[in-house]
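Per reviewer request, we include the raw input and output of the structure prediction for the construct analysed in the revised manuscript.
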Amino acid sequence: MVHLSDYEKGLLDGKEGKLKQVCLENIVRYAEILDAEELCEVTKATVFCGAHNYLGVSKSDDVNEVFSQMNLAVDEIIPFDQTYENCYIQSCVSPCDQHEYQPFAQSRDFFKKNAQFLEQARKAGVIITGTCAPYLTGWLPIRGEHFVTTESGVTIMGNSIWAAMGNSDGIEAAFWSAICGRTPKWGKHVQANRGGTHLIEIKTEVNSLLEWDLLGRTVGAPLPTGAVPVILGRFTGVTFQKLRRLCTTLAISSNCEMCHVVGYTPEARTVEDALRGRKPAGALVVDERAMQEAYESVCDSGAWDIDFVSLGCPHYDIDQIKRAADYLKGRRISPKVHFMIWTVYAIKAIADENGYTKIIEDAGGYIYTSSCPGTIGEVFLKNYNGFVFDSLKQAGSIKSETSKPVFFGNVYRCIDAAVAGRWEESHRWTRSR
């Protein structure tokens, strides 16, 4: 039985309206399934807003009816008109850019429909940011703060980098929590469940962003369900950028919800600290060969003509945009290549102000916001014949969905390919690049 506070009992009695009542009913059932004895307050949330393809199961054109059917799991139409007042809620990526649709082969009708979904969420209290990197716009939970998110990489980042507390909940559960402000006190919301389970010893250099991407794949692929890796290596020059690449790729390579990087993440001052005094359930050594195999799994071999180059997964911050603009200055993207950088629109405004957008556009490229190629999907991707990404997450996702060549390289090799209209074998990752 789930023990409820007086406030929670009031929500179940409908004292704050039908929407919050239904959401808390769902959360309580969720908690019962998980054998959670109580709930905890959620003060940070990201939710998957927009006219996403899976919502097409509902044949309705009414936003509130679609939300009721698909997110609340009820036949009654309950307006999505409020959220929990003590929760900072942002929207994750939507299925199209919030300002453009034609570059993605999307219809104006779909663009307008997506805007309607976003507007309904905004009226309910969701801050529309449209990003997989909510921390770029101030979404930064602190140690011990309970959060929910629809972005798998942010789950690991929240638990690992900031020592906040969250689980890999589904899209619907995140909405319920954002609306009623509660989630089951279970999993990584409980301190006792946050200790490391597997010791991962890194026996090779890991320096560049690309190599931290590869590390996430190499560590994540062999992990058993529910594992919490404790990553131990002689790292130098560790930055937030590198850790976020690790977490993002670890999330798609495993069902991991948290990792400890000894000496760098706050709950892992030492190996013993990370393991909470327990012996590891398993161990793994990551060497040069393992990293190379991870790279080969996402990057095709050979040289190919390409027509699609995408940078930014997770969304680029302003420093990354600056570096790309500096490297592009005075050069021209091949006219046959669609070259794009993805970010959040607040960061694009900063890029506009600093002249980086103009440099990129003068070179023949574009900065887009609010989405990404994988989220937009087949309607966009089917128009291209050779793909280049600087993100293992995007490269791996697209590679699993197409028979066309997919390449993965660092930002500079990706830009070189965009300028030439061709991916060369020399662009492939080696230790010297």
